[in-house]
């Protein structure tokens, strides 16, 4: 090193005045300069050689430059979309085979700090009834979950038991506004589901379904995540076909009071399929039928929660119309199992997820009487507009392709919901009384 520096210094010194011809011929000085230049060139080439060797042999493959594999935004041909989709699925399989942490570095050691076991999953509407049960299952499976919720109908209480878990995050955010998150999967549930709530601000409901779904599909496109839409049996409207098969296109009123929800979900399905076909995004669509269970909103106008809350409060059970309209009721754990199978499977859907066991409103009222209070009275009221007469899923497709079917009967599931409602209704009453100085001694 010292000699190199010395040489460099020498080469930067001003040239000495030419010595007398007799003692130092000019040819020998020129050859020294040429030799020094060749020497320097040699070191430059050795340096380049070492660097090339290092990048090609020492660094793991994941760090080397690879041609970009993201689908072009201009792929519109179905074959191209299918090819892109299968490429994405292939990458996902590789990702999962690598334990979810080796996407960029399948061959080498995972650098410290980048290693993680589960998937990163966002659940929009995760503080709501269905969403919070889904979050429980995903956290139990070992995934990291980000809940995005504006708390319109959801409650922090539904997910409070995960506070402090480093694999859980809760973000107060309205899906009508864009959000950027690095995730592998998106379960998109954000939307009020009960008529009382979705009719409260119908324009906001349709905005949530259209703009909210667009934002989440945009996120899926941007980060290469798989996207699952929770659609609804309401897309069948007041069905003329019974039971409803996924190929049935429905009988929906586009200008009715429920249209903000029905048509909103239909548009959300359309957007989901267009992102899939046009942009190669991996999507899944679930059409959910009436679901019940713990953590449902009290007094949300849905028939099961209405009956249970009324029976517990010793109020009459309100039956709309003649009570002969039918519904099928699925327990929430069955639905969550179906949603997860759909997300993990290879089929886009749509899939009906519901319990095909059919009950009239009067039969349901009887089960509630048996479970809570045999003396509960039934009160008839005029029916609401656009209330479908019959609703029962055909779940053959989910049985065949997802290997899924409900396992919890109404007689098994209802008591679980009743104990949750009992605890919430009576602890609410206690806290109301104590805030008026009724029961506490303090
Ligand atoms: N429960 C059912 O019987 C049923 C039936 C069919 C479809 N679904 C669908 O399943 C999903 C979940 O339903 P649920 O029963 O849990 O309803 P829910 O009302 O309990 O949950 C919806 C959640 O979304 C949140 N939310 C609403 N608008 C939002 C917005 N703009 N931005 C962010 N968060 C928002 C709410 O605060 C709530 O936490 C919904 O998409 C619903 O349409 C449910």
Automatic annotation (TrEMBL):
Residues 123-415 form the NAD(P)-binding domain. InterPro entries: NAD(P)-bd_dom (IPR016040), NAD(P)-bd_dom_sf (IPR036291), UXS-like (IPR044516). It is found in: Golgi apparatus, Golgi stack membrane. GO terms for molecular function: NAD+ binding; UDP-glucuronate decarboxylase activity. Keywords: Decarboxylase, Golgi apparatus, Lyase, Membrane, NAD, Transmembrane, Transmembrane helix. The keyword Transmembrane applies. Its cofactor is NAD(+). It comes from the Eukaryota. Catalyzes the NAD-dependent decarboxylation of UDP-glucuronic acid to UDP-xylose. Necessary for the biosynthesis of the core tetrasaccharide in glycosaminoglycan biosynthesis. Belongs to the NAD(P)-dependent epimerase/dehydratase family. UDP-glucuronic acid decarboxylase subfamily. This is UDP-glucuronate decarboxylase. It comes from Corymbia citriodora subsp. variegata.
């Amino acid at each position: 090193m010292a000699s190199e520096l010395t040489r460099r210094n020498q080469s930067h010194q001003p040239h000495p005045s030419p010595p007398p011809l007799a003692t130092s011929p000019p040819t020998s000085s020129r050859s020294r300069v040429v030799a020094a230049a060749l020497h320097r060139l040699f070191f430059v080439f050795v340096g380049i050689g070492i660097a090339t060797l290092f990048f090609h042999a020492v660094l793991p493959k994941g760090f080397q430059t690879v041609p970009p594999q993201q689908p072009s935004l201009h792929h519109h041909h179905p074959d191209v979309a299918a090819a892109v989709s299968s490429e994405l699925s292939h990458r996902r399989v590789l990702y999962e085979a690598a334990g979810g942490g080796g996407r960029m570095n399948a061959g080498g050691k995972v650098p410290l700090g980048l290693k993680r076991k589960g998937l990163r999953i966002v659940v929009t509407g995760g503080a709501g009834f269905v969403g919070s049960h889904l979050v429980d299952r995903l956290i139990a499976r070992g995934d990291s979950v980000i809940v995005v919720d504006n708390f319109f109908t959801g409650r922090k209480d539904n997910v409070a038991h995960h506070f402090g878990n480093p694999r859980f995050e809760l973000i107060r955010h309205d899906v009508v506004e864009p959000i950027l998150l690095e995730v592998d999967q998106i379960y998109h549930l954000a939307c009020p589901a009960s008529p009382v709530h979705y009719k409260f601000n119908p324009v906001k409901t349709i905005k949530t379904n259209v703009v909210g779904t667009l934002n989440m599909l945009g996120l899926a496109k941007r980060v290469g995540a798989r996207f699952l839409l929770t659609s609804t049996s309401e897309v069948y409207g007041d069905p003329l076909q019974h039971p409803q098969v996924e190929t049935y296109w429905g009988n929906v009123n586009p200008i009715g009071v429920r249209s903000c929800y029905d048509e909103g979900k239909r548009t959300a399905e359309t957007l989901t399929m267009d992102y899939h076909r046009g942009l190669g995004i991996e999507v899944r669509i679930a059409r959910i039928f009436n679901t019940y269970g713990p953590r449902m909103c009290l007094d949300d106008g849905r028939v099961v929660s209405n009956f249970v809350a009324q029976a517990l409060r010793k109020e009459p059970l309100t039956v709309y119309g003649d009570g002969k309209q039918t519904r099928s009721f699925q327990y929430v754990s069955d639905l969550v199992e179906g949603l997860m199978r759909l997300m993990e499977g290879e089929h886009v859907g749509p899939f009906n997820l519901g319990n095909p066991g059919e009950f009239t409103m009067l039969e349901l009222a009887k089960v509630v009487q048996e479970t809570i209070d045999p003396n509960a009275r039934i009160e008839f009221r005029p029916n609401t507009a656009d209330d479908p007469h019959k609703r029962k899923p055909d779940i053959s497709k989910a049985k065949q392709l997802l290997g899924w079917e409900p396992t919890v009967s109404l007689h098994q599931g209802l008591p679980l919901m009743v104990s949750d409602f009992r605890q919430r209704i009576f602890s609410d009453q206690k806290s109301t009384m104590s805030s008026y100085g009724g029961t506490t001694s303090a």
